[in-house]
Structures are given as C-alpha cells and as structure tokens.
Amino acid sequence: MEQKTPLYEEHVNSHARLVPFAGFLMPIQYTGIIEEHRAVRDAMGIFDLSHMGEFRITGSGAVAAIDRLVTNDVVGLQPGKIRYSPMCYPEGGIVDDLLVYRFHDHLMMVVNASNIDKDFDWIQSHLPDSVRIVNVSDDTALIAVQGPRAQMFLQSQTDVDLSSVGYYEAVVGSMAGASGVISRTGYTGEDGFELYLRPEDASGVWETLLGRGTSLGLKPIGLGARDTLRLEAGLMLYGNDIDETTTPLEAGLGWTVKFGTDNFIGRGVLERQKAEGVRRRMVAVRMEDRGIPRPHFEIRADETRRGELTSGTYSPTFECGIGLAYVDTAIAKPGTRVDVVIRNHKHPAQIMRKPMYKREGA
Amino acid sequence: MAGDFPDDLRYTESDEWVRVEGGEAVSGISAFASEQLGDVVYLQLPEVGKRYGRTEVFGEIESVKAVSDLFCPLSGEVIAVNEELDATPGLVNEEPYGRGWIARIRLENPAEAESLLEAAAYAQNTTERH
After folding, report:
1. Residue B29, CB half-sphere, CA atoms under 13 Å: how many?
2. pLDDT digits over B72-86, tens only?
3. Which residues from chain A sit within 8 angstroms of residue B42, using beta carbons?
4. What is the pLDDT of residues B16-71, one digit of tens each?
5. B3 in a domain, yes or no?
C-alpha cells in the first residue's frame, strides 16, 4: 500500500492523475504534461515533493562524518548554505545524489524517495557514536515553487527578504503563514524556492499559494512535467541516469568531487579513474527527426553500438525528442552525429552540450 | 472526457473506435485511451494501401510519457490516414472522434464489426481498468 503525502486530498480535489512512485501515491499530471511544463518555463509552478527523504544529523563531529560520506566538500560549507553531492560506495558507484544543508547546530540531508531506507542504513553504519541521524521524512512536507515569477510572487507571501537568499542558500522563516526552511533550490532549470514545512501546515500553504498565485500563472505540476523539465536542464535522476554501477566522473559530476584534503568514501577509485580518464561519459542527445528516445535505447555511430540512453522524452521547449545517454568518450563531443535505434529503426541525433536548456540570465 | 463514448461507434478492448460506413470504417483511439496516454506528440501512421488483419499492430502512438502500439480494429486495406496528425498530433487528445481520426479501412468482412464492443460495454470495460 502506497503512502499518501500530506497534500493527497489537494491532488484528488484538483483531479490529478495519481500513480505509485517510490512507495507514494504521487500526481503524475494535473492538466497535461506540456501545459504544466510551459507554465514553469513561462510563469511558475507549484510541486508537492513531500515524498523526498530528509535526515537530521546532530552531534559532535557531524560535519566531518558527513564530509567523509559524500564526494563534495561539507567542511567548508558555511551555515545557511547548501551543497549538492553524490554519495559513493568504496568502489566508486553512487549510493545516492543528495543535498546537504548546513545550519548552526545541525545538518539536513535531502535524499531521493526511492533511497530513503538504503541511505539511512548506509549513513548510520558510517557515523561515530557521537553523531546522531534521525529520519524526519514523515515529519517533513516539501513544496517547491519554480519559474521566472517564483521570487516575485513568493516575496508577497513572506517577510523574509528573498533577494538576500542566494542560489543554494537557505533561511528559516515564515511563508504563507507557516514557518519552515526556505531554500533557493530546485530541479527544473528555473529559478525557484523549496519550502520544508510541518506536514500539518502543508495543505494550508498549498491552498494559499495556489489561491493567490493562479492569477499570475501559478499551476500545480506533476511528476511528468518534473521529468521533462529536469531532462532539458540536464539534471540526473537516480535509478535512471546514475546508480551503483556509474561513477560521478562518468556522469559528468566531476565538479562535485573534491579531492583536496577530503578523504571521502570512494576516493581511491575515483582518483584512479580521473588519472586514467573515463571510458564512457554522460551526454545530452537531441533527435533530428520525429523519433522520441526512451531509456535503454541503443546509440550507434558508424553502424557500431557506442552507448545507451538512460532517460529520454519529448521536450516541450525544443519540440523534439531529447535524452541523456552514456556513450564512449570518443564520441562524447558536442556536435557529434549519432543514430538512436528506436524499435529497430535508426533515427538521426546529435550529441549536445549539457544542459540543453539554460534560462535567460543564468 | 472519460466516459465520453459515442453510441454510434464500436470499440475494441485495446481502445480503438470504429465508425462503419458501408464497406469502409474510420478508426481512431477512444477518449479514454487518449486521456490515459496524455499529450500525444507523434504518430507512426499505418501504411496506405497495405492490408492488415484485425488486432495486428498497424502503427504507433507516442505521448510525452510513453509509446503504445496502434492495433488495426478490423481486417482490411488501409485506404487513407489522417495526415493532419503529422503536424498536429494533439488532435488525438482534443477531438479523438473527430479531427483526431487515424485511419480509413476498406473492410474485408463488414460482419466482423459485430464482434466489437458497443459503447455501454466498452464504458464498463474502461471502468474496470481505472
């Protein structure tokens, strides 16, 4: 039986189509993926992300302990700042990709819904006795508002000066009458904010924001459009594009791997991979005909298999098929012509610079 | 939209509709199917002039989310396809029984249509799948 988020009733009332996802009944779409996608690109959208996992980490040595678990730097993270990072196995494969929030007296980790139990066990088994981790996922609702109008609109619903909250920064404050954590983060390629709230406050905030934002173009957005938005923005989805068989370097996440002084789990393998160079690399792919790539479709160059799609969909912005794929490093250069095999037929495509979509001014 | 199944049409369990007109039939996909698929972005239409058997795959329909096969609802030769869908595949969502039609078939055996579901039976069938 799937869990319901604190916003389940709101989704039912707005006639969302609900599907099981990572153990939750989640809205896949409200009115239609293309319409919802365009609302986020042109105005703004509101997302229920309460299925995501949140851990609270406290105690002496918490920062050093988490720093050792993730490839990015946490020691140098100032309170109020956020870092995206893979968390790796000793062999270099990825346990999960996540966010680390640093606050004055604790850390918050935000993990993929499908990995909550696995991550919790993994992290807990690597913490010293002085550090405590609590899974607060069921006590945390998460609402995102994303799009070019997000800041302007949300500013009218809070006393927090949102212009002082930089990208990947968080503050504690009140939004639409409820207090929580407000962070400038997202998974759409647009500017926007994510609101971590108490579950009992979630429906009030959702209703208030939707009620006041509709005239500005605010629409509820389901997981369907979340996927097309993140793909255009070149953002990975754990389980599709990255998993325990792929490394951050292969995935093009080298910028999140800090070899400096940091002795993180997986460092040895990743250092060797960096020195030797990766054999395959994640790239963005854009179709040159009407074909639509899907996960596991083969990529060929010169009639030879050279890679495989890990995500693929129709892009409402570019009005063609796009995807992410691992390909041999030799053909990973943007501009390279390849073929995608769609049900036994070759369709022309091109390797693109990632991300394909970049908002104006970003 | 779901539950919108005109009485003058017959339906297949794979969600095609047909309107029999003498020895020919026009076909498309039902409002239920188009709603389940979501935004249709591409169709691989059947080949004009080719003969297909009933339930044979004769095309593909691709939505943002996924691809599905199109099944030939009645045996016969495809004599026309809706070329408007090339430029505006969304017609399948907007007017599944009108401008979103997919193929016109010259029937091999018009009596075959009697075996297809009537609107009420098809409506019941979709309810069970909700």
Report:
1. 28
2. 999 999 999 999 999
3. 290-292, 314
4. 999 999 999 999 999 999 999 999 999 999 999 999 999 999 999 999 988 999 99
5. no
- In one-letter notation, the amino acid at residue A33 is I
Q: State the CATH architecture for A254-352.
A: Beta Barrel (2.40)
Alpha helices in A106-186 (DSSP H): 116-124, 150-155
Residues in B closer than 8 angstroms to A29, CB to CB, are 38
Structure tokens at B77: 């030769």
**A294–B67 C-beta distance less than 8 A:** yes
Interface test with A, best of B57, B60, B61, B64 (most A CBs within 10 A): B64
The number of distinct structural domains making up chain B is 1
Q: Which of A119, A144, A357 shows the shortest CA–CA distance to A235?
A: A357
B4: in domain: no
The domain defined by A3-50+140-232 carries CATH number 3.20.20.220:
no
Domain of B34 in residue numbering reads as 10-129
List of chain B residues whose C-beta atoms are within 8 Å of the C-beta of residue A35: 39
Distance CA A176, CA A30 (A): 23
Query: Is A307 in contact with A326 (CB distance < 8 Å)?
Result: yes
ipTM over 0.95: no
- Taking a C-beta distance cutoff of 8 angstroms, is the pair A97, A242 a contact? yes
Domain ranges (residues) in chain A: 3-50+140-232, 53-138, 254-352
Is residue A105 classed as helix, strand or coil in its secondary structure?
coil
Superfamily for the A53-138 domain = Aminomethyltransferase beta-barrel domains (3.30.70.1400)
Intervals of chain A under pLDDT 50: none
Q: Do B64 and A314 touch (CB under 8 A)?
A: yes
Smallest CA–CA separation between A31 and chain B, in Å? 9
Strand partners, B86: none
d(CA B56, CA B16): 12
Distance CA A221, CA A42 (A): 13
| Within a domain: B108 | yes
